[in-house]
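hey so i finally got around to running the thing on that chain from the lab meeting. sorry it took forever, my laptop kept dying and i had to restart like 3 times. anyway pasting the input first so we r on the same page abt which one it is
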Amino acid sequence: MEPQKETALRKRTQISKTNRMMLLWIAAASVIVGSALVVSYFLAQKLFFNEKVLSEKEKTVATLQANNSVVSALKDQVRVLDANAALAKVKANPDDQALQVILDALPADANSLALGASLQNKLLAGIPGLSLESLQVDPVVGVEVSGDAAVQDASLSDSVSSNQITFQFSVIGDQAALKQVLNNLERSIRAIDITSLRIENQGSQQLMSVQGRAFYEPAKTVELHDKAVKP
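ok and heres what got predicted. didnt touch it at all, straight out
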């Protein structure tokens, strides 16, 4: 073989080896870069997720700190109410705390039957010369009865949202007896609002028709719960 041809063949062999080596290096570099990008992507996701978790934790800590900061003031207010003479005067039972009056004034349940029993047996009972003609307490639509199973008066459409129990009654008696009825309603532990009152003369007696509403406040539930933070 001529020296020039042998030299050319050797150069082509070296160039071929160099090209193969370059391809291997490029492939290896591509794998490394691709792996680095994938790892960077997952690290960024992990970083953002950790930031979200820390943000939720900071919110929880801020809420707990705000709640703890008002505990002392709340205790002071409760002690003041518990020593309130006006509340102590209207306690249902002498052994009850004064704060029980507030709970009795705004019961936690929409119990229309209990309100009816209170009106009939306490507020409208034991009054000399008074006769109870009629008494109706309306169940709370959507709470005590289904809205589909009862015909709801349009004037009472917001009774559920404002936690109201509506009632109406008619009594017959002299002026003193009717005045005592109104005094009993005013002094009732329950929060009662008279929306309509009509008095008609019936001989020596008077017929008083009253429409009103009492209120309740559903119990509040305070509890801790877990919150899942999605990546």
